[in-house]
Amino acid sequence: MARVIALILPLCLDTFAVAAAIGITRPTGAQRIRFSLLFAAFEGGMPVIGLLVGAGLGRVIGGWSEYVAIAALVVLGVYMLWARADNADQDRVQKLAASRGPAVIALGLSVSLDELAIGFSLGLLNVPIVPAIVLIAAQAFVVSQVGFALGGRIGEATREGAERLAGTVLIVIAGALLVGRFLGHSN
């Protein structure tokens, strides 16, 4: 369960960053609930796909699965560290926040791609699916509410810092998993 929590915590930071960007538009209470439910549904659903693919691949590659999961976490962490939001991204988020239909689905997909990668890693690490999905969906709902509420009050640097911190945490977790894997082999 510690692995699940450690892998889900960085997702909070990423969800917060996106929700805070939407929070700048000052969404109504109904919009906040709608977007939070959207985030929870997408962020809870995408890891299922990743988990299924990761678990299946884990059975095929056996003992190498943990190393592949570690590599996936490092790649995701590095992406989160160096991906920069520009004004076009900010404008796109604000337009999505005001839209309905397919654009809302695009918003849901945009916040859940990280969860696909995390789900893949969780599957490779043979983590129980149900607790992981429940925790991911719950954190998405709660953290998005906080992000919406604080979005207009915090600066862009804080939001970008949250994303960079999430990337750093994922890389640290990958390092800890790698050290644990090596220590486990030395016994």
Describe this structure in words.
The protein is an all-alpha fold and 187 residues long. It has one domain. The protein is 86% helix and 0% strand. It has seven helices and no strands. It is globular, with a radius of gyration of 17 Å. The chain starts with a helix and ends with a helix.
Quick synopsis:
By secondary structure, the protein is mainly alpha-helical. The chain is built from 7 helices and no strands. The chain is 86% helix and 0% strand.
Q: Which labels suit this protein?
A:
mainly alpha; 86% helix; 7 helices
Number of domain modules: 1
Specify the helix fraction band: over 70%
Quick one: how many beta strands?
Answer: 0
Mean pLDDT: 75
| Largest sheet properties | none
H/E series: HHHHHHH
- Alpha-beta classification: mainly alpha
Looking at how many chains there are and whether they match, the oligomeric state comes to single chain
- Report the sheet-strand fraction: under 5%
Q: What Rg do the Cα atoms give?
A: 17 Å
Query: What would the principal axes of the Cα set say about the shape?
Result: globular
Low-confidence segments, given as residue ranges, are none
- Termini separation comes to 23 Å
SS summary, helix count: 7
